[in-house]
Write a structure and sequence with these properties.
The chain is mostly beta strands and 223 residues long. The chain is built from five helices and twelve strands. The chain has a single domain (5-217), classed as SOS response associated peptidase-like (hypothetical protein yedk fold), CATH 3.90.1680. 13% of the residues lie in helices and 36% in strands. The longest helix has 8 residues, at 11-18. The protein is globular and about 50 Å long.
């Protein structure tokens, strides 16, 4: 799964990668947690646009969002038949900018956090889905989930799942829901190459979402 990630690159660097029209202010975030707002990039009338969304997808058919499960991740396997995600997979795919993510390794009764980032230190994008839910008062709430897949060989040493990383050459195909159907889009996705990421252990301070600073991504003492 992917339960925490970071967005730390300068806004211009993220905008160059994802080529959206807006120029939002993106302050660095070192511990993005579920239910918080996250940036997504989606296609609208052929152009890429930036938008904020709640992390934790709320299906449009949901009656009571407070009692619904928190859908922060969507498994790639079976995504086109899963009721909560199949409609979004057909027509509401998005990219989620990031500079890396955390995973926890079980070590006896302890869970040790590790940080994964690109080897070149550049931002990249997760595959995501977004949805619109209308609350009882008629307010539209936009939400999103990160798609995950079986871990590659490198990540599997820490955790058996990983977020789907969309390489730049597949950004267009992933976002284009008219000319690229859900089945073909899913077939393009999978684990990142083993040489794409680097990983190292970090401080358990990341266990609390209230800790949000560069110390989170510093190598753990003795690491």
């Amino acid at each position: 799964m992917c339960g925490r990630f970071v967005i730390t690159s300068a806004p211009d660097a993220i905008r160059r990668l994802l080529r959206y029209e807006e120029q939002p202010n993106l302050p660095p975030r070192y511990n993005v947690a579920p239910t918080q707002p996250i940036p997504i990039v989606r296609l609208n009338h052929g152009a890429r646009h930036f938008a904020p969304a709640r992390w934790g997808l709320i299906p449009a058919s949901t009656k009571d969002a407070k009692r619904a499960p928190l859908l922060i991740n969507a498994r790639l396997e079976g995504i086109n038949t899963t009721r909560a995600f199949r409609a979004a997979m057909q027509s509401r795919r998005c990219l989620i900018p990031t500079d890396g993510f955390y995973e926890w390794k079980k070590d006896g009764k302890e869970r040790r956090p590790f940080f994964f980032r690109s080897r070149d230190g550049e931002p990249f994008a997760f595959a995501g889905l977004w949805e619109v839910w209308t609350d009882p008062d008629g307010n539209a709430v936009e939400s999103a989930a990160i798609i995950t897949c079986a871990a590659n060989e490198q990540v599997a040493a820490i955790h058996d799942r990983m977020p789907v990383v969309v390489p730049p050459e597949r950004h267009d195909a992933w976002l284009e829901t008219v000319r690229v159907n859900a089945t073909d889009a899913a077939a393009l996705m999978g684990p990142a190459p083993n040489d794409f990421l680097q990983a190292y252990e970090v401080s358990p301070r990341v266990n609390s979402y209230q800790n949000d600073g560069p110390e989170n991504v510093a190598p753990a003492a003795g690491g």
